[in-house]
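FAQ

Q: What does a record look like?
A: Structure on top, sequence underneath. For example:
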C-alpha cells in the first residue's frame, strides 16, 4: 500500500481530531472520523483501522464502573447487537463500496438532523424496542462503527440513572468492538497488504488525540465543539451523498 505523504498526513490529522473530540464531548470517534476518512481511504481500510483504535481506547480507559452496569438491559440488547453485526459484516463484504458510502452519507445526515431537530423524549419505551434498535445498531456498528447513537437511543429511554446509563453504554460499546474484531478477522478484513503498517503508523495520532481531548476537557467549551462537529458531520454527509448518488 503506497499512500502519498500528504494523504497519510491528512489521515493522521483526522484521527487526532476525532479522538480529541471524543475526549472533549463524548462523541464516538468513528461517527466523527468516518465521513472524512472515506474521502482519503477505501472504506474497508478505514473501518479496521478505527476499530483497533476504539479497542485501544477502551482498554486504556478500562471497563470502569462495572458494578453500575444494568445487566438486564445489556443481556436484552447483546443478542440483537450480535445478529446485526453479522448482517453488517456480510453487507460490508458483499455490497459495492459506492452504495455503502451513500448509505454512510445518508446515515450521518439523518443522525445530525435528528439530533439537531428532535428533542429526546423522557418517557420509558418498551423492552421490545431492544430487538429493532439492537439489530440496526449492530448493522451500523459493523458497516461504519456508528452504532453507538442507536444503542444510546434505546438505553437512554430505559435507564434513568446517569451513572448506570454511562457504565452500560461504555461496556456495550466495548463488547461491540470485540465482536466486530472477531467478525472482521473471520471475514479477512485485516488481510489487505500494508494495513497493519497503516494502523501502527496512525496509532500515535489516536493516542495523541485521546491525551489532548482529556486534558482540554475542562478548558474548552464543549457546546462550541459540538456545534463545530455538527457542521463537519453535515458537510461530510452531504459530500458523500453527492459524490455517490
Amino acid at each position: 500500500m503506497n499512500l502519498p505523504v500528504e494523504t497519510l498526513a491528512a489521515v493522521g490529522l483526522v484521527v487526532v481530531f476525532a479522538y480529541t473530540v471524543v475526549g472533549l464531548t463524548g462523541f464516538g470517534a468513528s461517527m466523527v472520523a468516518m465521513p472524512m476518512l472515506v474521502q482519503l481511504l477505501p472504506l474497508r481500510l478505514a473501518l479496521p483501522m478505527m476499530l483497533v483504535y476504539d479497542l485501544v481506547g477502551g482498554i486504556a480507559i478500562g471497563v470502569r464502573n462495572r458494578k453500575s452496569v444494568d445487566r438486564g438491559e445489556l443481556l436484552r440488547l447483546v443478542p440483537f447487537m450480535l445478529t446485526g453485526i453479522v448482517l453488517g459484516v456480510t453487507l460490508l463484504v458483499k455490497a459495492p463500496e459506492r452504495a455503502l458510502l451513500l448509505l454512510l452519507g445518508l446515515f450521518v445526515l439523518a443522525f445530525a438532523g435528528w439530533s439537531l431537530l428532535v428533542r429526546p423524549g423522557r418517557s420509558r419505551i418498551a423492552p421490545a424496542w431492544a430487538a429493532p434498535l439492537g439489530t440496526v445498531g449492530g448493522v451500523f456498528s459493523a458497516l461504519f462503527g456508528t452504532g453507538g447513537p442507536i444503542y444510546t437511543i434505546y438505553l437512554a429511554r430505559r435507564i434513568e440513572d446517569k451513572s448506570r446509563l454511562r457504565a452500560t453504554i461504555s461496556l456495550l460499546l466495548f463488547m461491540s468492538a470485540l465482536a466486530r474484531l472477531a467478525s472482521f478477522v473471520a471475514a479477512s478484513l485485516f488481510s489487505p497488504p500494508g494495513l497493519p503498517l497503516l494502523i501502527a503508523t496512525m496509532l500515535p495520532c489516536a493516542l495523541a488525540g485521546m491525551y489532548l481531548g482529556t486534558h482540554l476537557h475542562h478548558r474548552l467549551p464543549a457546546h462550541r465543539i459540538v456545534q463545530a462537529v455538527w457542521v463537519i458531520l453535515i458537510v461530510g454527509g452531504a459530500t458523500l451523498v453527492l459524490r455517490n448518488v
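Q: Is there anything notable about this one?
A: The chain is about 75% helix and 0% strand.
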